[in-house]
C-alpha cells in the first residue's frame, strides 16, 4: 500500500495569462475533485459531522480539502492524496453524534474517472461574449486554444483512446504553463501528473499561432464521434427531438437545432473577429433578434478537401419557443453582405432555414385537415344528390301533393278492424259461399286491398272465441283458402 501524501497548502503562483502568448481563445476546465463539492459524493451532499467517509479503494485521485471535518471513519484510497488547505484538517467524532449521520451509511466519494476530456459539458470558454455560443465540436479545446485547469482546485481528466493525439496550443495546470511536448511529458509522468490525468490517450502541445485574420479551423472533426458520444451519454446516446420542422445540423454540431445557417465565401481581407463583433453590435442587440444565439467560425467545405478551401459558418440558433427570428436575421445578414460585402471581404453568401415550430405546425395542420374534410363532404353532397334523384334512387314528395286515385294504400290489418271482428262467423257446416260473378278467389300472391273480400275465421276456431269480444287475433288469408277447400 502506498502511503497517503498530504500537502499542507496549494501553490500560490499565478497562472500566466494566455493573452501574453497570443490572442488565442482559451478553454477552462469546469469540474473538480474538491472535498466540499456536493456533486462529488454519492448522496449529492458533503459528509455530515460525525459520519463515515469512504474513498474508492482502487482509484487514483487527488482531493483538495478546504475546511476542517469531524468524521467517525475514514477509508482512504490505495493511491491518492488529500491536499489540505490552510486551516483544513480532520478530527475524530463518535458515530451518530449528529442527527442524520449513521455508521451504516457512509458518504462515498464518487468515481473520479467519470470526467472525460471529450465531454463538451465540462468546458467553458474563457472570454465568450453574451449571445455567442460554439458548436459542439468546438466546445472542446481546439488545436489553437490555450487550456486552463483550475489553479486552486483538484481535478482528474480522462484521456480516453482516440484516433489521434489531443493537441492544443498550451496547458496551464498546478501553477505551471506547458508549451512544449518535453515539459508536458515530464509533468504527465510525475506523480502529480498521474493523479490529474489518466487514460491511454496522448496529450501534446505546440505553440501554433493562428496567424490568419480570417480564422483557423478547429481541427476536432476526427474526434467529433467521441465528442458526441460523451455529450449524449446522459441521454442514452440519442439526440432530443428538435422543436421545429426541417431542423438543421450545422457542421460540428451533434444534434439538430432550430434556426438558420449562413455560409460565407470569404476573401483574403476577411477578418473573423471583426465580423463576429459586427454581428453582435449591429444585429444581435436589436429587439427583434432577442432570444437568438450566434456561432461564427471557420469550417472546411468538405472533410476531403484541403484546409485552404474553407468557408465561414454563421449558426443562428433559436433558444425560445418562438420561431422566425433566425430566418429574419439570416436574410438581414445576406442583405448586409450585398451592400457591404466588398468592405467586409465576403465574396458570396447562402442561407438555410428551419421550418415552423412543431406545435404551431401541428395545430395549423389539424385545423386545415378538418376544414378540408368538411369542404370535401359538402361538395360530395351537392354533386351526388341531383344525380341520385335523376336516377330515380332518391325520391321525395311535397306534403301538399295529393295521392293519385287508385294507388295502393298498403295491406289491410284485421287486428285493428273492429267492425270485421264483430261480424257473424260461419262454421264448416255453412261452408264458403259461391264466388261472385266476375270475381276470382284471391291467391297468396295477390295484394290485399280494401276492395277484396275480408277474410273470415276458419271453422276450426274454438267456439268460445266466436262469441268473444276480444280483438287480439286475426285470420291469415294465405291459409284461409286452403282451409276452406279441405
Automatic annotation (TrEMBL):
<dbReference type="GO" id="GO:0030139">
    <property type="term" value="C:endocytic vesicle"/>
</dbReference>
<dbReference type="GO" id="GO:0016324">
    <property type="term" value="C:apical plasma membrane"/>
</dbReference>
<feature type="region of interest" description="Disordered">
    <location>
        <begin position="421"/>
        <end position="472"/>
    </location>
</feature>
<keyword id="KW-0813">Transport</keyword>
<feature type="compositionally biased region" description="Pro residues">
    <location>
        <begin position="444"/>
        <end position="453"/>
    </location>
</feature>
<protein>
    <recommendedName>
        <fullName>Protein amnionless</fullName>
    </recommendedName>
</protein>
<dbReference type="GO" id="GO:0006898">
    <property type="term" value="P:receptor-mediated endocytosis"/>
</dbReference>
<keyword id="KW-1133">Transmembrane helix</keyword>
<feature type="transmembrane region" description="Helical">
    <location>
        <begin position="366"/>
        <end position="388"/>
    </location>
</feature>
<keyword id="KW-0653">Protein transport</keyword>
<dbReference type="InterPro" id="IPR026112">
    <property type="entry name" value="AMN"/>
</dbReference>
<keyword id="KW-1003">Cell membrane</keyword>
<dbReference type="Pfam" id="PF14828">
    <property type="entry name" value="Amnionless"/>
</dbReference>
<dbReference type="GO" id="GO:0015031">
    <property type="term" value="P:protein transport"/>
</dbReference>
<keyword id="KW-0472">Membrane</keyword>
<keyword id="KW-0812">Transmembrane</keyword>
<keyword id="KW-0732">Signal</keyword>
Amino acid at each position: 500500500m502506498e502511503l497517503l501524501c498530504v500537502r499542507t497548502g496549494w501553490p500560490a503562483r499565478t497562472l500566466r495569462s494566455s493573452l501574453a502568448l497570443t490572442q488565442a481563445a482559451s478553454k477552462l476546465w469546469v469540474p473538480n475533485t474538491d472535498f466540499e463539492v456536493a456533486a462529488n459524493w454519492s448522496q449529492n451532499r458533503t459528509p455530515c459531522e460525525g459520519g463515515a467517509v469512504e474513498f474508492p479503494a482502487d482509484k487514483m485521485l487527488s482531493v483538495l480539502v478546504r475546511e476542517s471535518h469531524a468524521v467517525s471513519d475514514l477509508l482512504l484510497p490505495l493511491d491518492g492524496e488529500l491536499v489540505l488547505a490552510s486551516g483544513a484538517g480532520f478530527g475524530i467524532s463518535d458515530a451518530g453524534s449528529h442527527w442524520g449521520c449513521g455508521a451504516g451509511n457512509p458518504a462515498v466519494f464518487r468515481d473520479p474517472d467519470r470526467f472525460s476530456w471529450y465531454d463538451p459539458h465540462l468546458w467553458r470558454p474563457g472570454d465568450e461574449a453574451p449571445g455567442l455560443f460554439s458548436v459542439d465540436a468546438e466546445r472542446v479545446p481546439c488545436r489553437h486554444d490555450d487550456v486552463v485547469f483550475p489553479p486552486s482546485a483538484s481535478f482528474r481528466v480522462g484521456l480516453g483512446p482516440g484516433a489521434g493525439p489531443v493537441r492544443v496550443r498550451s496547458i496551464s495546470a498546478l501553477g505551471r504553463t506547458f508549451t512544449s511536448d518535453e515539459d508536458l511529458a515530464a509533468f504527465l509522468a510525475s506523480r502529480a501528473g498521474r493523479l490529474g490525468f489518466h487514460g491511454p490517450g496522448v496529450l501534446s502541445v505546440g505553440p501554433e499561432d493562428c496567424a490568419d485574420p480570417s480564422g483557423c479551423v478547429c481541427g476536432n472533426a476526427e474526434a467529433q464521434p467521441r465528442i458526441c458520444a460523451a455529450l449524449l451519454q446522459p441521454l442514452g446516446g440519442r439526440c432530443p427531438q428538435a422543436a421545429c420542422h426541417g431542423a438543421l445540423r450545422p457542421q460540428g454540431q451533434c444534434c439538430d437545432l432550430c434556426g438558420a445557417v449562413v455560409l460565407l465565401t470569404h476573401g483574403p481581407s476577411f477578418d473573423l473577429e471583426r465580423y463576429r463583433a459586427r454581428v453582435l453590435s449591429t444585429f444581435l442587440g436589436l429587439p427583434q433578434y432577442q432570444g437568438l444565439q450566434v456561432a461564427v467560425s471557420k469550417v472546411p467545405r468538405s472533410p476531403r478537401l484541403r484546409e485552404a478551401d474553407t468557408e465561414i459558418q454563421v449558426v443562428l440558433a433559436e433558444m425560445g419557443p418562438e420561431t422566425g427570428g433566425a430566418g429574419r436575421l439570416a436574410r438581414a445578414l445576406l442583405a448586409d453582405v450585398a451592400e457591404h460585402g466588398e468592405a467586409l471581404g465576403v465574396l458570396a453568401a447562402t442561407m438555410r432555414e428551419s421550418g415552423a415550430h412543431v406545435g404551431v405546425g401541428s395545430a395549423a395542420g389539424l385545423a386545415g385537415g378538418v376544414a378540408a374534410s368538411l369542404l370535401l363532404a359538402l361538395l360530395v353532397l351537392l354533386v351526388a344528390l341531383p344525380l341520385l334523384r335523376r336516377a330515380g334512387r332518391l325520391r321525395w314528395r311535397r306534403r301538399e301533393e295529393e295521392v293519385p286515385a287508385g294507388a295502393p294504400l298498403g295491406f289491410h290489418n284485421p287486428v285493428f278492424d273492429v267492425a270485421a271482428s264483430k261480424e257473424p262467423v260461419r262454421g264448416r257446416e255453412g261452408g264458403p259461399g259461391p264466388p261472385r260473378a266476375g270475381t276470382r278467389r284471391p291467391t297468396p300472391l295477390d295484394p290485399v286491398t280494401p276492395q277484396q273480400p275480408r277474410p273470415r275465421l276458419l271453422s276450426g276456431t274454438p267456439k268460445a272465441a266466436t262469441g268473444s269480444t276480444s280483438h287480439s287475433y286475426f285470420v291469415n288469408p294465405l291459409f284461409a283458402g286452403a282451409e276452406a277447400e279441405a
